[in-house]
Specification:
Radius of gyration: 21 Å
CATH superfamily of one domain: ANL, C-terminal domain
Number of helices: 10
Structural class: alpha+beta
CATH class of one domain: Alpha Beta
Distance between the termini: 52 Å
CATH architecture of one domain: 2-Layer Sandwich
Helix content: 25-40%
Oligomer: single chain
Length: 362
């Protein structure tokens, strides 16, 4: 090469709301060591476990690039296996790992006696994100492992500074962390105005001065993501009186029934708080009168039989915790929900089941 230069990465989004998009940056990204006082806070003797696909942005950063830059040994799991993961944590005295909520569910599904047989006391930093984690699931993980979980909110496109440790999360169940206006976090309405406390808006991050992303080969989508010096992934959420952020879903997932916005994640959380539910996915299905109606697809927990009786029980449970217009008018059952390789729910695929054969999908 006549003029060699450092290369860069192009990672792909998960494609949960459409086709995966190439996230391209023209400037190379410098990965610095993550020692005392950083997010990872590596110390001598630490060991990292990579138990997810390293071609995805989060495992690549947390489990590969950061440990390599910091001289931390890495243990690679060939494929996800809950029991094997526990065995490796014990054997190699793993201190750091990145997981997704699906992995948490698989771990918690193991017999408690089997789980308690492993010494997991070395685990100090179990970071998770990439997909929403049900409150009950995260509570169970903290009860089992202690306050070692840290949740982050970001995406392949970027993001900065929103995360929450176990102690903070237990005080603010369901939050993904506190926003910081000094870091450029904003939640705005359709007109671009900051929304008041408790009101749902679109979440924006500050774009860096250099190294801004672009969607490869798609300038129109790139332009749509930016608003001045800020960008959005289309996520919706609100903050409470203390500035803690709670996600409600993506704008592309929003159900509009009778002109009212309904955010499916809120319904998912309520359904998954019932012991008969293993997983839930709420979507908008076509309705000639209302435009869309709220429908939920549920994977029953072990020992619970799908059917009319269970559907009625879950509808009553939802009615006790949600406004009437948010409650599922129908509940369908399935043995599994479609997910990406990183465990993100593919809500768009579930929604498509109800819109097949229609000329419009809204």
């Amino acid at each position: 090469m006549e003029q060699p230069c450092a290369g860069t990465l192009m990672l792909y989004t998960s494609g949960t709301t459409g086709r995966p998009k190439g996230v391209f940056r023209r400037e190379p990204e410098v990965i610095e060591p993550q020692f005392l006082g950083t997010f990872a806070n590596y110390q001598p003797g630490d060991v990292a476990l990579c138990c997810g696909p390293a071609y995805h942005s989060a495992p690549l950063l947390f489990d590969i690039r950061w440990p390599l830059a910091s001289g931390v040994p890495i243990v690679l799991l060939d494929k996800w296996d809950a029991a094997k993961a526990l065995s490796i944590i014990e054997q190699y005295r793993v201190t750091h790992a990145h997981m997704v909520p699906t992995m948490f569910q698989r771990l918690l599904a193991l017999d408690p006696r089997h789980r308690s047989a492993y010494d997991l006391s070395s685990l100090r930093f179990l970071v998770h994100g990439a997909a929403p984690c049900a409150v009950a699931t995260k509570q169970a993980m903290i009860e089992w492992l202690g306050p070692v979980l840290t949740e982050y909110y970001a995406a392949t496109e970027g993001g900065n500074g929103i995360h929450v440790d176990s102690q903070q999360w237990l005080r603010k169940l369901g939050t993904v962390g506190r926003i910081d206006a000094a870091l450029g976090h904003r939640i705005v309405d359709d007109a671009g105005n900051d929304v008041p406390v408790g009101m749902v808006g679109c979440i924006y991050f500050q774009a860096p001065a250099t190294g801004r992303f672009e969607y490869f080969g798609d300038p129109s989508k790139t332009a749509a993501a930016y608003e001045g010096d800020r960008f959005t992934m289309g996520d919706m959420g609100y903050v409470d009186e203390d500035g803690y952020l709670f996600l409600t879903g993506r704008a592309a997932e929003c159900i509009i029934s009778g002109g009212v916005n309904i955010y499916p994640r809120e319904v998912d959380e309520v359904l998954m708080s019932h012991p008969a539910v293993h997983e839930a996915c709420t979507v908008g299905a076509p309705d000639d009168e209302w435009g869309e109606k709220v429908v939920a697809v549920v994977v029953p927990a072990a020992g619970h039989t799908p059917g009319i009786a269970l559907a009625q029980t879950l509808q009553a449970h939802a009615a006790a915790h949600l406004a009437r217009f948010k409650c599922p008018r129908e509940i369908h059952f399935d043995t599994a929900l479609p997910q990406t390789g990183t465990g993100k729910l593919q809500r768009n695929q579930v929604r498509q089941r109800f819109w097949q054969g229609r000329t419009k999908s809204i």
